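Table S2 (continued). Query chain:
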Amino acid sequence: MPPLVAAMISLGVLGAIDTYITATIFPVPVWVTFIAWASFFACGGGNQGLVKSVVSNWTGIGIASITLLIIQYGPAHPIFAAILVGAGTAAMILVSAIPILSFPPAIVFGFASLVGTSAATDTTIITAGLNHPTLVAMAAMLLGGVFGLISEIGTQLLAGKKSATA
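Corresponding output:
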């Protein structure tokens, strides 16, 4: 089967499954799983791309968590928040010197996904429990990365190519 058709089928079916799972069984923001899914491919795919993507996404989530925590307890002024987001952005670029974190967009995907998750779920960085936005964003990004790997393998199988990840 042509690779484009194989990818269309694999990603289409898995996109539907991802949407169903996040709407019913594992309630995390589906858009975060899709961002992580794209991040998987942007980081090169395969097992190495999965690890690089998840570690980068989670690093961004960690930096965003620290940033939001400081903002939470600091002065309630937009300039304070802006300075801290600037510092968080600088931190994301600084850590990209580490080889596994060498694709800064994947770090930014994690940062943005945590901020968006907090806003979309109406939770703050000091929310207690399993619905803490850091945990929710981390779980969603891991799920999305796994869907990326499964879709890559599915595409290769449908296209009749040997899986590079197997």
